[in-house]
Amino acid sequence: MILKKVSKLLNNPITMLALILPVYLFTKSFIYLSYMLIGYVTAQVLLEKITIGKVSQFLFVSWLLIIPFGIATILLRDPLFLQWKFSIVYWLFSLILIISYIIKGPIVLKTLFSLGGGKVNDIPLELLKKLTFVFAFGFISIGFINTYFIYFTSFDTWVTFKFIGAPILLVLITALPTFYFFSKAEITEKQ
Predict the structure, then answer these.
(1) Could you give the CA distance from residue 156 to residue 161 in angstroms, rounded to a whole number?
(2) Within a domain: residue 65?
(3) CA 55, CA 49: separation in Å to the nearest integer?
(4) From the CB of residue 103, how many other CB atoms can be counted at a distance below 10 Å?
(5) pLDDT at position 57, please?
(6) Average pLDDT by consecutive 10-residue portion of the chain (191 residues)?
(7) Domain extent for 156
(8) Are 97 and 136 in contact (CB under 8 A)?
(9) Is residue 128 within 8 Å of residue 107, measured between CB atoms?
(10) Residues 56 and 102 in one domain
(11) Cα 6 to Cα 41: distance, rounded to the nearest angstrom
């Protein structure tokens, strides 16, 4: 029971922000930041596996990338590996959304929405199709915006973008279209 609560707490992006960002702000070391990210995401993976019995696809892929990129950052003392991991994760999820859509339809989003409740079968297929492409485009955009911050700003600015700007973009790219499309779907169903 306690492990489930800790797992939920660690999966909250604000907890990650509260635990990891101060490490960088006080040390100004991307090496310590890398250690913290590796440890934090590994703890998330282990707790999800222990408490739920499985690890979410997004977390697992992120973990598989953070280990080699984080270790490369530490060993080679170059933050570029850590910075690129972020773009790669978002591009991979875009690819997963698009490929799964081509093969089976908007199954990934249907699965994600099913976590929110049992009414997922009531969601119109056309809505899921539109959201799949909006999310994929949004993830691709976040990846490219990240590369801009890597090459045209300081590391401090990139850290700020990573922990503050990117989560805000993610909410804008996922929550706003979801609310918009669902409100349109409700209006269409009432007519």
Answers:
(1) 9
(2) yes
(3) 5
(4) 8
(5) 80
(6) 77 79 88 92 90 86 90 94 91 91 81 64 78 92 97 94 91 85 62 53
(7) 92-186
(8) yes
(9) no
(10) no
(11) 13
Q: Using CB atoms within 10 A of its CB, is residue 188 exposed (0-12), middle (13-18) or buried (19+)?
A: exposed
Q: How far is CA 59 from the centre of its chain?
A: 8
Quickly tell me which residue has 């499985």 as its tokens: 54
- Token pair of 82 as six digits: 């850590």
CB 111, CB 121: distance < 8 Å: no
Of 14, 47, 78, the residue that ends a domain is 78
CB atoms within 10 A of CB 76: 10
59 and 12 share one domain: yes
Say if CB 7 and CB 59 are below 8 A apart.
Answer: no
**175 HSE (CA, 13 A, CB side):** 6
Sequence-ordered list of residues with C-beta below 8 angstroms from that of 126, at least 6 positions apart, any chain? none
Cα Dmax for the chain: 61
Token digits of residue 69: 């990129």
Task: Answer for the pair 4, 51: CB distance below 8 angstroms, yes or no.
Answer: yes
pLDDT at position 2: 81
CA quadruple 18, 19, 23, 26: dihedral, nearest 10 = 40
Q: Is 120 within 8 Å of 109 (Cβ atoms)?
A: no
* Tokens of residue 191, six digits: 């007519």
From 52, 78, 104, the end of a domain falls on 78
